[in-house]
TrEMBL record:
One of its GO terms (biological process) is protein O-linked glycosylation via mannose. It comes from the Eukaryota. This is Exostosin GT47 domain-containing protein. It comes from Rotaria socialis. GO terms for cellular component: Golgi apparatus.
């Protein structure tokens, strides 16, 4: 776990355009669609199953974009790991979109919206070498306190 967020490479130094590493079985419909669309992209990297964690993190750190389709739920650990390693996750639009505010996440309605040309057009400056605030515990603590304060002000909960 020490490698998360450490020595993050600038976007220009990343040689994988789209990193693909997931099990189709946790959401057969969405994940097979995603794999079918992205499989033949230029400079993608389709990882072998059971990639050692250190290799997985290294792959994320060498990737500009990380495909992160929903698995057993709407969210996926891969999205947050990609962000910690400075890559840009590509996710499907959902009720969780607001969670990605302040992060360089690409949210699409369909996988077909993403093309090699559209990814190459994205400026390397979006690939960050710092950890977005939304990945830090302090950010979420402040969010919870803000909601609590708002609810207390409106007398929804007792003070």
């Amino acid at each position: 776990m020490d490698a998360l967020g450490k020595d993050v490479k600038p976007g220009a130094n990343r040689n994988i355009l789209v990193y693909i590493n997931f099990s189709i079985g946790t959401n057969l419909m969405q994940r097979s669609r995603a794999l079918s669309h992205f499989r033949n992209f230029t400079r993608n990297h389709l990882a072998k199953l059971r990639t050692p964690f250190y290799q997985y993190l290294d792959d994320l750190g060498n990737s500009r974009f990380v495909l992160s389709p929903p698995g057993n739920g709407l969210d996926c650990h891969r999205t947050w790991e990609a962000l910690l390693m400075g890559a840009i996750p590509i996710v499907l639009s959902s009720t969780l979109n607001s969670l990605f505010s302040g992060t360089p996440t690409i949210i699409v309605s369909t996988w077909e919206q993403v093309t090699v040309a559209s990814l190459r057009a994205i400026n390397n400056s979006l690939l960050t070498t710092h950890i977005p605030a939304a990945l830090l515990a302090q950010y979420w603590h402040a969010q919870f306190l803000s909601v609590r304060q708002s609810l207390q002000s409106s007398s929804v909960i007792d003070r």
